[in-house]
Amino acid sequence: MSASDEGNAAPAGYAPHPYVGGRTAALRALAAWRMRWPGAPRVIVLTGNPGSGRTRLVTGFLMMCDPGHRKQLPLDDLDPATVPPDLPAPVVPSPAGRTAAQMLWMISDHLGLNADRDDDIFTELAAREEPVTLVVPDVDQAGPVRAAHEPARVVRDVLKPLAATETVQLLAEVPRELAAELAGALPAGQVQIIDLDAPEWADPKGLVLHAETALTPEAGAPDLPYTTDPAARRALAEALAARADGNRLTVRLAVQSLLLQPAGFDPADASQLPGSVGEVLDLHARRLGADPRALRLMLAPLAFAEGEGLPVQLWGALASAVAGRDMSRDIADGMLLAAPFIQPVEPSRDEDPDGDGDGAADEATEDGGAGSGADGRTLLRLTHPGLAEEIRSGLPDVRDAQTKIAMALLEAVPQQDWSRADPYIRDHLAAHTLDAGLLPQLLTDPGLFAHADPVTMRAAIEAVPLEQLGAPARTYLRTAPLLTRSQAPAELRAAFLESAFVEDGLAPYAEALHTLGFSLPWRTLWSVPLVGVRAVTTGSLPPQDGDGATADAADPGDPDGRAAGTAAGTAQSPAPATADSAGPAAPASATTAPGRPVAAFLVPEGTPGSRTVPGPDSDAPEGSGRALLVHDLLRPGYVDADPAQVQLPSAQAQEAAPLGLSRGADYLRVWSRADEEVVAALLSDTPFTGADLSPDGVLVVATARGVTARQILAAAPAPAPTVPAQRTGTADSASSDGLEGDHS
Fold first, then answer.
1. CA 737 to mean position of chain CA atoms
2. Which residues of the chain have pLDDT under 70?
3. SS3 sequence, 89-110?
């Protein structure tokens, strides 16, 4: 349909869509797509320049697709060919602020798909008997970090596979640079590109109507000769539309500008009518007697703002940083100058920012500081992404401007204490440094790792090539899925990271987290990267009697291993040892003197350093025993000792233990026997294969990655006389092997 066909609606007496105000040709195409009209494509790709009205068109179309909203529209007055049939509302997964993975699992959850992997989602969709209608708006706003280029990932990883699924009817609104990639993956008959700036989809009459409506007193315009006189209003609307060359954003900003400051505006002077968004800025500044460059410098921090918007408290400092001079007076005196281009934002919090959380960490509550604007402060942003793009493109050096913003944000952190930093800085500094090319240098601060929003931090780090990341950043990256899935507050994020640093041999980073004011629930004592551990237990070896039975390679200056209470590390590989025939570990007598605390691991036979302990029948054939490794409980280091000498806690010690252990499929909870309160919760991104809690509160956990010991730091009160009701969960091992479980 050509632009001339747009006018056919008016002679026929049809009213324009009350929200869209035109776009008849595009609405007809969308309605035909929705009703699956013969010859209509299965996939429509809607595109256009920034400010072309893509979002407004999709919103107006969805109004007619929603059964509840369409009852409020005068559908009988509209062109019947533009009205979709009364069907159930399509699925509308918004990519705004979300990653491709979040968006994909949002679709899966909405449709109730039985999927464990990304590919399973598309398989499940393809197997459905009834087609699924999806409308995906605002792809250009995808991702929590602008410089991470998430829109391209959404097209590649989500929209292209959806478009290739025959049971999916898809309408996607995408930037022009991605439209051809999405459409090119399909045969010509299945896909149609609607480019709102192309002549066949242009809507010059609709744009005039858009301008004319905005100029009416009913829309809030002041009483002026060209707003109250219908003929003058129509003439100005036609002039604005013609000069804007079809761009709705240009017309909208021009009207806001002249209505806010009409003094000096002559509608008969064509030189005062803007032809682009950039000309709107410049003409507005000149009409107010200001330097256009000063206006752009004022707005520059808002053009680079991440998330929902920039806290007003940071605006002046960042504008001064970009300008290289003090801009505080410009901003204080220039609110009228900036008013048409900025808007306040009511901050909101996403209940599940990662999109795939299952809430397994029941103890984890939202961190009050995680997320800009959570404290009710005023946030500001530009009125349209296209305006931000214009301002950024007009700067002489975009990376230099972003570098100045990042440095100013970093300097605004009081004494580099992230707990006192503005929430915006904590959550979005990584995004600014990514755009400035400085992110790898920032990723060495464990305090920032713990305090920053893990969704935005993860997205920023993932945008950096892996070879450019240092060891701490790689540790964060592998831990990030756990941080986002659990929605853990900063303190629990710090605890997870503390263990991860020890697991990766970065003990100084783990120790640093204990100096930053967090009340961590544990201190990670050691970790060994040991594959194949089936069960773990804690116990003790008898006191040394001089026969060398418990000699090991540990530090001779610390024979009792208590130094592990203040130092963390990764244990050395076990030295090969010869095993004597011995029976299973026995419980310690109540009168036995305290021995050396140890942990024993059940490992595959042949594991270097392990000793094989036969089963109860000493005549059993070779290979029927159990291979065990013995490790010091309180510090790094394997113990060269006979596993048969390991004594389990006595019944008295078990009953006197102040803490208990409960286990689920992917979580562990340590609770106080006195009041049944959880004192520590541990999640894992790999299944637990074993867990045990010593009477002294050392939690030893085995996963597919290895074995880690944590000293629970919570001070537990005196034990209660009864077993807590919440002591539930699966058994620690399908086959306990006599080693596994909570001895309390």
1. 41
2. 1-12, 347-376, 545-594, 614-625, 715-744
3. CCECCCCECCCHHHHHHHHHHH
Three-state DSSP string of 475-494? HHHHHHHHHHHHCCCHHHHH
The residues, any chain, with a CB within 8 Å of residue 326's CB and separated by 6 or more, are 320
H/E element, 688: strand 688-693
- The β-bridge relationship of strands 659-663 and 706-712 is unpaired
Q: Say which residues have a Cβ less than 8 Å from residue 68's Cβ, sequence separation at least 6.
A: none
Q: Is the dihedral of CA 502, 506, 511, 514 positive or negative?
A: negative
The answer to whether 250 and 224 have CB atoms below 8 angstroms apart is: no
Whether the predicted model's global pTM rises above the 0.70 cut: yes
- Write out the two tokens for 53: 């009205």
Pair 552, 639: CB distance under 8 Å: yes
CA distance 139 to 96: 7
- How far apart CA 48 and CA 138 sit, in angstroms, is 12
Distance of CA 30 to the CA centre of its chain: 32
User: Assign residue 456 a region: left if phi > 0, alpha if psi is -120 to 50, beta otherwise?
Assistant: alpha
Tokens representing 657 are 């233990």
Look up residue 720 and give its DSSP letter.
Answer: P
Query: Position of tokens 């094989």?
Result: 612
- pLDDT at residue 594, as a whole number: 66
Q: What was the pLDDT predicted at 534?
A: 94
Q: Which of 38, 134, 68 is nearest to 95 (CA)?
A: 134
Contacts of 614 (CB under 8 A, 6+ apart): 581, 582, 583, 620, 624, 625
The per-residue pLDDT for 664 is 82
CA distance 284 to 291: 10
Which pLDDT tens digit goes with each residue over 196-211?
999 999 999 999 999 9
Measure the CA–CA gap between 461 and 456, rounded to whole angstroms.
9
Closest by CA position to 98, among listed 164, 153, 16, 27: 153
Tell me how many degrees the CA angle 164-104-476 measures, rounded to the nearest 5.
Answer: 130
C-alpha separations of 55 from 49, 60, 130, 140 in Å: 11, 9, 28, 10
- Closest-CA residue to 401 (of 331, 303, 307, 329): 303
Q: What is the pLDDT of residues 210-239, one digit of tens each?
A: 999 999 999 999 999 999 999 999 999 999
The DSSP code sequence of 566-605 is T--EEPPPPPP-PPPP----EEPPTTPPP-EEEEEEEE-T
Strands 522-528 and 569-570: parallel
User: For the residues of 446-479, what is the DSSP string, one character each?
Assistant: HHHHHHS-HHHHHHHHHTS-GGG--HHHHHHHHH
Tokens coding 369: 């500081």
Q: Look at strands 626-632 and 611-613 and give their pairing.
A: antiparallel
Residue 554, exposed/middle/buried by CB under 10 A (0-12, 13-18, 19+)? buried
List the structure tokens of 175.
Answer: 């930037």
Task: Name the phi and psi angles at 22, rounded to 5.
Answer: 145, -145
Among all chains, which residue has been given the structure tokens 């059964």?
Answer: 67
Secondary structure element (H or E) that encloses residue 53, with its range: none
Name 386's Cβ contacts closer than 8 Å, sequence gap at least 6. 49, 50, 51, 249, 277
Quote the pLDDT of residue 359: 36
Q: Where are the alpha helices (DSSP H) in 342-422?
A: 385-393, 398-411
**What pLDDT, on the 0 to 100 scale, is given for residue 615?**
62
d(CA 157, CA 162): 9
Query: Which residue from 203, 213, 216 is spatially nearest to 244, judged by alpha carbons?
Result: 203
